[in-house]
Write the structure tokens for this entry.
Amino acid sequence: MTTTAAAKTPQTAPDLVEEPDIPTEGDPFDQDDLPTPKGATGALLRSLLAPRRRTVWAVALCLLLQQAAVQAGPLLVAYAIDHAVPAFRAHDYGPLIAVAVGYLLAAASSSALLYAFVRLSARVNQDVLLDLRGRIFRHAQALSVDFHDRYTSGRLISRATTDVESLRELLAEGLQELINVILASVYITAMLLWLDLGIGSVAALSFVPLYVLIQLYRRRAARVYGERSTAIAAVIVKFAETMNGIRPVRAFRRERANDEHFAVLNHRHERRNGDALLEMARYVVGSRLVANTAVAGMVLWGAYRVAAGSLELGVLAAAVLFIRRLYDPIDRLAMFLNSYESAAASLRKIAGLLHQTPSVPEAESPRPLPPLAGDRPGREVVFEGVSFRYRTGGEVLPRFDLTIPAGQTVAVVGSTGAGKSTLAKLLARFYDPSAGRVLLDGVDLRDLAVPELRRGVVMVTQEAFLFSGTVAENIAIGRPDATREEIEQAAKAIGAHDFISALPDGYDTDVRKRGGRISAGQRQLVSFARALLADPAVLILDEATSSLDIPGERAVQRAMHTVLSGRTAVVIAHRLSTVEIADRVLVMEHGRIVEDGTPAELIAGEGRFADLHRAWRNSLV
């Protein structure tokens, strides 16, 4: 019952910070963007479309045929002017009727194909967005606790809402515009070259300045839309943070300060939106200047050639229609580029999030826990050569060894920042040690399958979190297949049955968001009942009685004598009254275990715990 880490603690030394350090300016978690490997964005998009490749090909075929039907119009006009009209004057009505029927068939085919395209593309779009949101949600849940300590929930919300919405706009509108522009350009250029090599060549050469404009726009817009995505994420983060902390905001009159901070973030987002619109305006003005100049030049040249007899009037008319159709989509291409750059920036951020891997990975070849020995449900816990440091901070727990026999209840006490909660989080495997191993009945926690670990080790934290739903549903989280009778028995064992029965609908009372319908102490009792229903071999209580009043704490302590009997328990004690239920006490200072013994032994001594206990006893007088 001793540890090799016991050491004399200096009388004056600053407390070590127990939680992760605040990210530095160079820390990627301090920024909205996470590192995204080269090619990750394209790989993500391909993986989203791969299960739907047949539908995607059907969509492309519909658009290909639809554009062919649309571009048949000018050819029919040219044939009508040069052949059908002269034939009509000669009382031959067949060519003109054929043109009219052909035009109607082209229009009908175009409409039918467009309808099929919209139906199929909408199905692909919704399936892709459904898949992507699901991936973000599942991946965010799978990431380790240290990631969520550093990457705010507001940014995660922004990834799953604003950034996914940007991709929706691209898939629903922008992508169609791009394909239309590409197909129209190919069809029309080919038709112009077929109708007249000179006009077709001039039209093709006009794409050179347009291509330069597009590349300049893309280069500037990529930066602007990345900054815009970061700006809206900051707005969402501030909004979510304020609403989650509305009680301290009101209590400490932070409304004006929050308004001022939110206004700064909101104006920054407004400026980034303005920058995006300005870039698009520059592109539209430049593209229209090129297009109108090219159209005017070709019309004048074509008119001169018609007058000179080297070009047919119908061919000129068809060429003018084709040219207008060629350059009109160029303006709409700006809308696609607008959607594309916004979606590309968003997709990069999503790909960066999905590329993050848990710092506490799943075991590649899980080992089972050995069967429990005898009738005791507890398991032995061993910290073997363990040390721990946060990713950007100093060492929190210097190297130590600790053994907790099966069935023993250990209370861990110490000042704030002593490392108590970090020790508990290592046992719950919210973090992996920087060095050494944490063993459960001789099995490294890193070799256990996560479901088995969560069944064997349960932690009740200081901040009791309840989900929206009934009291019974929140207790049943500990064991979803539990019967109503088992749920009520767990509540009775912990002393929560009476207050639950007094609620308007008893166990069927909806606790609402974050359990706001019941008090903090009652939420803690519900979380106790949840943990006890899970029936773990190891139970960790991280200052879990700190929200309870004295009568509630006494009721819980009485229940604990029965509930913890035979189980291994680690109790992070904020109040020394909690230590009364422990078989053993560990005193921590600056990450080191400086005292280890039974409560009676330590109280009788002259160490740190004896001083704390005397001060606590005097405070009760």
Notes: The chain has 19 helices and ten strands.
